[in-house]
Design goal:
alpha/beta; 6 helices
Length: about 190
């Protein structure tokens, strides 16, 4: 069962962002649907929004995850963390952390994530975040195409719009095939 996102009454709703996007010709609702769809593809995983600076994006991620998935919102300022707490519904799947991004990535370096979003404030940490993506996992960023796409390990594509600028996926490693098999039937 997926909970749909709706901001708490009286909270900031990103309507100013939507108006700016509309003037620039950006489909922010389409970008938010992409985030929700990608989050929905990660049941039982931890989804991380590093540099959580958009209530709308955080809400879209929350609406996409199922009950077995956890959403970690990481902000480097208490002010943004408070805005996220005040604007998003109380939910056991949601956790908001206040920590510098480099410190957070260092603390979780032993883990791999199925889906990680780098907001605009965390753009300088994209390469470090990319190291934590599991094979077959997704990384979404809000600014310029990252250098991670240079090798064959990643597939990187720009997203339409411009509010969420690109999507990258780490190629899954092939599963080795067993040699042999049932063998040939004996002829008698």
């Amino acid at each position: 069962m997926r909970a749909s996102y709706s901001p708490k009454p009286g909270s900031m709703t990103d309507s100013q962002t939507a108006q700016i996007d509309e003037r620039r010709g950006v489909d922010s609702q389409g970008d938010m649907r992409v985030l929700a769809a990608l989050a929905a593809s990660c049941p039982g995983a931890a989804v991380v929004y590093l540099g959580a600076d958009s209530v709308e994006a955080a809400g879209s991620l929350l609406s996409g995850i199922d009950i077995t998935t956890r959403l970690l919102l990481v902000s480097d300022t208490q002010t943004v963390a408070n805005r996220l707490h005040d604007s998003l519904p109380a939910d056991l799947r949601l956790s908001v952390h206040v920590q510098d991004f480099g410190g957070f990535l260092n603390d979780v370096k032993a883990h791999q994530f199925a889906f990680l979003v780098c907001g605009t404030t965390a753009a300088s940490h994209v390469e470090d975040a990319a190291r934590l993506i599991a094979p077959g996992g997704f990384l979404v960023g809000a600014t310029g195409l990252p250098a991670i796409g240079a090798g064959s390990e990643w597939i990187v594509a720009p997203l339409g719009g411009a509010s969420w600028a690109w999507l990258a996926t780490r190629r899954a490693r092939p599963v080795p095939r067993r040699r042999g098999g049932r063998g040939r039937p004996s002829s008698a």
